[in-house]
Input
Amino acid sequence: MPKPNLPTSISLWRKIVNKLMTILVIIAVILAIIPLLLILGDVIMRGAPAISIGFLTHLQKPPNATGGGIANAIVGTFTMVGIASIISVPIGIGAGIFFSEWATSKVSTFSSFMNDVLTGFPSIVLGLFVFVIIVYPTKQFSAFAGGIALSFVMLPIIARTTGESLKLVPMTLREASLALGIPRWKTVIRIVLSTGKNGLLTGILLAVARATGETAPILLTASSSIYFAKSIFQPTASMTVLIYNYATSPYATWQTQAWGAALVLIIIMLGLNLAVKLTIGRNLSGKKVDL
Amino acid sequence: MRFRLLRGDVILKILLAAAALFVIGVVVGLAVELFLGSAPSLFKFGPSFLVESKWQPSNNVFGAWPFIYGTLVTSAIAIVIGFPISLGIAVFITEKLKSHLTFGYLLGTLVDLLAAVPSVIYGLWGVFVLIPIIRDYVERPLSKSLSYIPLFSGHPFGYDFLTAGVILAIMVIPTMSAVTRDVLSVVPNSQREAMYSLGATDWEATQKSVLPYARSGIFGAFILGLGRAFGETMAVTMVIGNIPSVSSSLFSPGATLSSIIANQFGESSGVFQGALIELGLILFFVAVLINGLARLLLWRMTRATHAKA
Amino acid sequence: MLGGAIKISKYKTMDTSTVKLATKDLKANFGKLQVLKGINLAFPENKVTAIMGPSGCGKTTLIRCLNRIHELTPNAKVEGEVFLDGVNIYSPQVDPVAVRRRIGMVFQKANPFPTMSIYDNAVAGLKLAGVRNKEKLDSVAERSLRMAFLWDEVKDDLKKSGTNLSGGQQQRLCIARALAVEPEIILMDEPCSALDPIATAKIEESIASLKKEFTIVIVTHNLQQAARVSDYTAFMYLGQLIEFGDTKDIFENPSNQLTEKYITGEFG
Output
């Protein structure tokens, strides 16, 4: 058959398109990095002037007074994240183990699906939930309610990461243990869990980081306060709500303090995320846990 | 052979199943309690709540439409801006940086860092830095020259749909690009090589073999980003103005389902509070729908890859 | 140009008028690992040349250098020259994309594009080159599928997805896809290694008829296949060309002891 006439060198148009797409793709990367640099830069530049030892150790003060600090907010945030962790870590790890070790049970698959739906849920809805079940009946905003709300933020993250990490533990390890006559419950707790403990730690750190940065759920449940909370059943300040209140206020002193608080918060957040990257970060079968 | 059912095994399984059931309980409880909490408003207004565009707390008249509208508009802006950028980042890292894996990893980490910034700090930055920039360099010029187009009508103050959309775009980029990156990296190399061996340029190989192969995963990333945009609260509430509006202008202040709850919940009670909780109920269903859809798509994509391999 | 004859091994030279593709001191690396240590080989036009050797000898890397696919792997490097009709395809003025149009490839595991129909798979390369005319596309699709001995089996199902075909059919589809762009040379990297004997036989049948129009280079670890299908055979070992010649000569009367050991199965 005769050979049809086809071009043997590539057309100019195709070369142009190829170069153009490369440029566009690089522009996309630049457009994404610029806001990051701007935000971090602004937080550092505008927040640094507000930072001092006093800032970290004094109580909040009215806008015209000097020497105000965010000590109660820092304590409030740590308290609520602490409460949230006490609740969400055991339950989250428990659910995660169930997802991995009893993966075939219907309860497990359904729960895992529900868990995925809960991950990344609009946190304000979680705040409404806790408001309805705790705050409204008790007519009381409290750090306790805030902690519960944050636990719902943390729970799905921990359960998911735990489940994924434990699934990576090779089957042969479990089989070897059972073959030695070690009962299943001991196999799971001693062997599977300790092999996968890095992944668990990552999940907990990610969840803590996430909870530390949340505002909406605690806005509706712990409200805010200018004092240290005397008990967990009272309203409390928190770093995020403080930033929100100060930033939306008309007072320059408070606005500067908002930037200062933001700087402190970012340092904590980046520190936590760095800790995650250093432990394993992306090494859960090369797949990142999306938040 | 019969094995004695070990007590330890039973106890552990019960404990763990309880934890798993707790998760289910939270989601179910969420629906139930939101339903109960919105009862005063739910029963007063019925289904017309969804299309009513008046929101007047002082007159006890409430409607969800302005907030559904606001959520749709801001999310649309966020996706229109954010999706192409996320796709570009993902393509760049997986296709162009194959020989420079550490650089790709660092770049990816940098973009992921955007996800670690709390929403309220985005809001803070939005109020003091983004709003002046958008207002003075984008909105005022557009308003001067193109105000006859409804999209650009009205006097811009900076607290509007556009700013909220832009901030949302920045916030959804890390999620969408991370998922897209993962999805693109599982496309088998033989697909690219088949295209190359037919005489394709780099971009053609990506466009005609990699992207189609990964398309359901990419769509999943898209939906995930959309879900993120729908639920974002603090950054939006700080820059959107929180005035219920169905204006077609980008420069009009508005409100989303989540932003208005954050903004007005503190002073609400009775039917007003019920109405806000009902908005939360709507948000709940939207989130479940979108999240469920996204996970389904991503799950199908990973299954399909294993099947084809 | 190369002059009147090419020396391809200690024992053989070849008349350049019959040579379509030739390598000169071809070296290839993966990072620090040197896979090809200086290959001098010539592929005669309209003939089938088989490249055989034990695992790790570099035969796959060699053909991937022939259509400039090897360099796409991260940290891969190529040195030396490859002459297509006397022109060095590695010279800086040559666009690798254009080279790959003229030298087609069929891969070890069939890789049809899963999101495209059989028809679209076959004409994928043409569409890349900018051919839009429906009649031209139809006629080329039919022609290529016939040459790959697949037309009769799929002619009523052209719009169906390529992934529903059997392994052997998918591989023939890939052959048709490669043929459609009218390359002058077709490189085949162990095309039948994942296929059953019947599918293998069909592909070998098509190779026999394809060589009338194309120059074919086939990498295989199956000695019998090399003996059945090829006119010339090259034997490689640890990145070097050990022997090259008429297939009959190589199999019945190898000049090199290593070749003889490989053919008789002493190692492999």
Chain A has twelve helices and no strands. Chain A touches chain B through 100 residues (CB under 8 Å). The mean pLDDT of chain A is 87.
